[in-house]
Amino acid sequence: MVKIGKLELGEFPLLLAPMEDVSDPPFRAVCKQHGADLMYTEFISSEGLIRDAAKSVAKLDIFDYERPIGIQIFGNEIESMREAAAIVEQANPDILDINYGCPVNKVACKGAGAGILLDIDKMVSMTAEIVKAVNIPVTVKTRLGWDHNTIRIVEVAERLQDVGIQAISIHARTRAQMYKGEADWSYLNLVKENPRLHIPVFGNGDIDSPEKALEYKNKYNVDGMMIGRASIGYPWIFDEIKHFLATGEKLEAPGLDERIAVAKKHLDFSVEWKGEKLGILEMRRHYTNYFRGMPNFKQYRSEMVTAETYEHVCDILNQVAEVYTDHVF
Question: Does residue 102 carry a catalytic annotation?
């Protein structure tokens, strides 16, 4: 049984990665319904929380049906991160996660996210202060290093454990790689082989099929996996991996009716939580993935990403159901 603090997550938990502009409550809802064991919010700016910025505060919204759920924060100032951690704790998540992995320039080049990998001592000090500031389990998501020459992930994991984190998720790329090239999970195996390390280690990067999940589970000895991009528009990935790990058999891919039903459910959640205008706008990034592999779909995708009313989107989904009724995925 994998545990984070007293939180029991099963024998080999699958986590939904925190993804900016993706891992919002509507998306988390459909992932939870399709097998995600633990989910994280989009990352939240510590400075935004302290300033009570509306966009940052909105990301604190969590719901009981999502549990267990972790709220993730980022920042480059230790005192601001302490204050933000205290604010997060009031939202009553199961876990507080620290983002030490975001590679984008506007975050990393200011010393936050993956930027802190250039100052491991500060990373450890900041983590220690956050652990002391809250009474809920603290976890960390990070990368292997800033670049190939600065990979110290075995040391980093141990030092963060020693100041109190209760699990670590490692994206098996450096910051320099961004999201390109192949993730190198061999470093995760080195982390797991450290005899001093006893916290769970979750692997992240390139897990996009049940077959790869089984291969990496057996090869790299991780305690669970964090799924990111492969889940966008395809929340079934969690159930498919679980079934394959348990039985060695692949689940049948969801058919058109199910894809439309889940896309509609996702849309309903989105409109309910954000209002019609923003809910429709922020669903647009998901449609391509819900209907990936369908021939001659460009026309319908174009209509979906320009539709401005809930009724119009639903009409397009109904058209897709009629036109592609015999399509097999």
Answer: yes
